[in-house]
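Predict structure. Chain length: 211.
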Amino acid sequence: MAELFGGKASSGILLPLLIFGDLIAVNNYSRHAEWPYILRLLPWASGGIIIGVIVGNSVNDSQFKMIIAIIVLTGLGIMIWQERLGNGAPVPRQWWFSAVLGLAGGFSTMIGNAAGPVMGIYLLAMQLPKYAFIGTGAWFFMIINLTKVPFQVIFWKGITGETLLYDLLMAPAVISGAFIGIRIIRIIPEKPFRYIVIALTAVSAARLLIG
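Prediction complete.
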């Protein structure tokens, strides 16, 4: 979407589709959410959204991608280190860890809906099991994405009647992808699930760097 419409414009076009997907995810995984982790991140993520709104007109796509790639790669290193040490790995539960990733997640989601890898780093670092990972992420992203709507409409004019019509045409693909994901996740064991998230996070970071 960013390549087709540009980073800033694509963030507005994608937002309603993401919220639609969030609703499906919350409906299926709500009971697995771990609210202490959500509440710990939300204030920092909200601050990151405001920063994203303020600097959105001055940071170009290439600069944004580089910043987020560095954040993601740093977090990826933490995840791989933890996996190598196993259950004995110290988990960074200090306030600054939530603050850094919360701000990074809020900023990246406002600028380009790119907080998935950042959130993945945080939830894997907290060593959440598969369904808790999904349920916690689903609620977090739905709250954050709904928070972004007024900023997109009022300040960036990123959501319009025309973009909503495009989203309506894309909605069947979102529904199909969501229900395919729901079925696939049932057959993925716990350990491979973590490795899949790490691998997709690495691909996301690489794509940001070379894009």
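Summary: The radius of gyration is 17 Å.
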